[in-house]
Design brief:
Radius of gyration: 24 Å
CATH architecture of the largest domain: 4-Layer Sandwich
CATH superfamily of the largest domain: Aminohydrolase, N-terminal nucleophile (Ntn) domain
Distance between the termini: 64 Å
Largest sheet: 6 strands, antiparallel
Strand order of the largest sheet: 8-9-2-3-10-11
Order of helices and strands: EEEEEHHEEEEHHEHEHHHHHH
CATH topology of the largest domain: Glutamine Phosphoribosylpyrophosphate, subunit 1, domain 1
């Protein structure tokens, strides 16, 4: 079954995915895994305050932006799916799922999607898969999502893991993606997109996606620490930095800025062991430290600065 027989954009992106809206936060998102390079550039689409789309199988990539445009015009998920499929010149090979900002979900699986293929629409979500090892994959995904709790991004990843446990793609694994947006737009696209992670080519893409999401959560705590510093909340900042380090204990960047924050609030003695560890691992951090006072990012006296710069040399 050549992709050229299935209309424009008919690349064989066989995969499993979920589109969902979180009823509590209003967040919407898509998570996907495929044995195809860079699935995140083709399948997942989402816009804050509008909805989320997954387009796959012999993928018509235009379903992504066009689906969001239909939702933006006021159509619901079912209307958007029907309109896109009706407009397509080769619908038999398509698989499509949409969730709108009200939590309505709809999906379509064409009869020429490679077995095992199917979808399951639930309350606020749809799971869909094609070219799977068995027809147990999408029911396992639905069960996992319904049973999950916590932030939407973590729930979406848990759903992908359930698909893999049920057999996943018959060809194996290669790429994965996770996209989550706010339920309502702030008017600033860079703030509306909460999570946008891609694993382009990896032996274990869902596990790698899990790792990347964990790192993002750690950096979110780092950002909160920076915001607390700007607000004059030194203790809040230190707590945020410590939390980030706890999530990623080997991350020198996080350790370093924690030490800088300690030094800036007069706790140089507490910062010195952290500087010692960081400078020992990479002396470039010491060079960076020498430059921070001139731009106001390190506010210590000359004697304290000398103590800091002396770290990492006595091992």
């Amino acid at each position: 079954m050549g992709s050229r027989r299935l209309g424009p954009g008919g690349r064989p992106v066989h995969t499993y995915s979920i589109v969902a809206r979180d009823a509590q936060s209003g967040e919407m998102g898509v998570a996907v895994q495929s044995h195809w390079f860079s699935v995140g550039t083709l399948c997942p689409w989402a816009e804050a305050g509008v909805g989320a789309v997954a387009t796959q199988s012999f993928v018509n990539v235009s379903f992504g932006p066009r689906g969001l445009a239909l939702l933006r015009e006021g159509k619901g998920a079912q209307e958007a799916v029907e309109a896109l499929i009706a407009s397509d010149d080769a619908p038999a090979g398509r698989q499509l799922a949409i969730v709108d900002a009200s939590g309505n979900a709809a999906a379509y699986t064409g009869e020429r999607c490679v077995p095992a293929a199917g979808h399951l629409v639930g309350d606020g979500f749809s799971v869909q898969a094609n070219m799977m090892l068995s027809d147990e994959v999408w029911p396992a995904m639905a069960e996992a999502f319904v049973a999950s709790s916590g932030p939407l991004a973590e729930r979406l990843v848990a759903t992908l893991k359930a698909a893999q446990r049920a057999g996943g793609d018959i060809r194996g694994k290669q790429s994965a993606a996770l996209l989550v947006v706010l339920g309502e737009s702030t008017g600033a696209v860079w703030q509306d997109r909460l999570v946008d992670l891609r694993v382009e080519d990896h032996a274990h893409p869902v596990e790698e996606l899990t790792r990347l999401l964990l790192i993002q959560r750690a950096y979110e705590h780092m950002n909160r620490g920076d915001e607390a510093i700007e607000a004059g909340d030194d203790e809040g900042a230190l707590q945020a930095y410590q939390t980030a380090e706890g999530i990623c204990p080997g991350n020198l960047e996080m350790q370093y800025w924690h030490a800088i924050a300690l030094a800036n609030v007069g706790r140089v003695a507490d910062a010195l062991p952290i500087f010692d560890t960081v400078f020992h691992e990479d002396a470039n951090w010491r060079t960076l430290t020498e430059r921070l006072p001139q731009v106001g990012l390190l506010d210590v006296g000359e004697q304290e600065l000398a103590q800091i710069l002396a770290q990492g040399t006595g091992r």
